[in-house]
Amino acid sequence: xxxxNILNLGIKEFRSLLRDPMMLVFIVYALTFEVYxxxxxxxxxxxxxxxxxxxxxxxxxxxxxxxxxxxxYFMAPELITRAEMDARMDAGLxxxxxxxxxxxQRDVLAxxxxxxxxxxxxxxxxxxxxxxxxIQAIVMTEVNxxxxxxxxxxxxxxxSLNLRxxxxxxxxxxxxxxxxxxxxxxxxxxxVLAGAALxxxxxxxxxxxxxxxxxxxxxxxxxxxxxxxxxxxxxxxxSLLVVVxxxxxxxxxxxxxxxxxxxxxxxxxTTSLGIFLGTLARSMPQFxxxxxxxxxxxMVLSGAITPRxxxxxxVQYVMLAAPNTHFVMLSQAILYRGAGLDVVWPQxxxxxxxxxxxxxxxxxxxxxxxxxxA
Length: 374
Description:
Helix content: 55-70%
Oligomer: single chain
Order of helices and strands: HHHEHEHEHEHHHHHHHHH
Shape: elongated
Radius of gyration: 28 Å
Number of helices: 15
Low-confidence stretches: none
Number of strands: 4
Number of domains: 2
Mean pLDDT: 86
């Protein structure tokens, strides 16, 4: 092995990538617009939900309840009649319809425990789940406040809950969504770039040129790993600094350099996986189909979208063999909680082991492929 060969072959990969404008556009898009949009338009976020109110009481209390639904969680409430409620829900104009019955204020002051009906369009599942809880809390707050103002004794809870949210005191989903989207894009881009680089060699016929040169399969594969990994590493660092910290104003608690060191380890593993998939595929369409089978489980089951603890035990154990599972763990610990190497060293060691195994498997498959072509 000669380091000069690995360096020169890697430079060749850079030049080949520069001659592929669509791939360059894809890289820029994935690390800028995709990160920004995924963070700001998360589906479970309650944002400007349409709500209608049937106010059959027309009392000061009912008006206080109607005025309490404000942006950004809800749009300005539409005051409608009971006859309009079902038709508007059927037409999809309202996600929520709150029906305040007649004599509601009088019954509250008389302690008769009146009932308010909330109709929810459950086809908008994520907003329906979050919004119903918001509406219940808002109505109870307004009713208790109004009752206290009229010298009524509010029901005292046996326990007082003092909420202190650590690491994300604003409970802002943008803080979580932006960083997790960078992790997903690192996995996606590294596999795509490494596998596409190999398939591009085969489609352009340059693999045959490499076979007659004094280079080994290890040097060819290593050049693709470091070149494509460096592209994704630089892009993810720029996205973290410009998009996440700059445009989205997300505070980073830990060391960015430690996070990039972990990113380099996961890139070693995922680029090796991309080359392995590239040896299995005979064309870019086949490679795209393989990506669908591999990327979806990696992203969905790694903990970047939902907590691993909510998954079945066997899924958690199986996904420990995936590199981005450990990448999600160390990224959340470093960027959210400010953890140091003394905390995340098990994830670093796991990435080294997984990356070595994937590199060895990819190299063995790559050698076998070149032998068949020779």
